[in-house]
Design a protein that fits this description.
By secondary structure, the protein is of the alpha+beta class. It has one helix and four strands. It has one helix spanning 56-124, and strands at residues 4-11, 17-23, 32-35, 47-49. Strand 2 (17-23) and strand 3 form a beta hairpin. The protein is rod-shaped.
């Protein structure tokens, strides 16, 4: 159920004093609005929400928080770029290590082939 309470006043568009009401509905609890003082059937429908004004200190706090977040994003992007460079370097080191392992395998296979060949040749003599 909607409930309203009347408090301060201001002038509406036609110059009449509009009443201020505060809603207590679940969808707009505590929201204030101004309404034409006459009944709906003789009203031209003036109704305006009261805009909340924020203090300069509150806006300043929000702006400094925003700046802090922007700086943190910049730092995180820089850290991300550094990590990307490290990954590329590690991939290069890994590739070099894999090449050494491959060369060692080829060397071992050739060594074993020569060993088996010499062994077989010495047995055949």
């Amino acid at each position: 159920m909607s409930q309203v309470s009347c408090s301060s006043q201001m002038k509406c568009n036609c110059g009449m004093i509009a009443n201020q009401f505060t809603l207590t509905t679940p969808s707009n609890p505590g929201r204030k609005f101004f309404k034409y003082p006459k009944p709906k059937r003789s009203s031209y429908g003036y109704c305006q929400w009261e805009d909340e004004e924020y203090s300069e200190s509150f806006v300043g706090e929000l702006m400094s928080s925003l700046d802090a977040f922007k700086n943190e994003i910049t730092d995180l992007k820089s850290e991300r770029d550094t990590l990307k460079e490290e990954i590329v370097a590690l991939q290069g080191i890994n590739q070099a290590g894999m090449n050494k392992v491959l060369k060692m395998r080829v060397f071992m296979m050739i060594s074993w082939a020569l060993y088996v060949g010499f062994f077989a040749a010495s047995i055949m003599k």
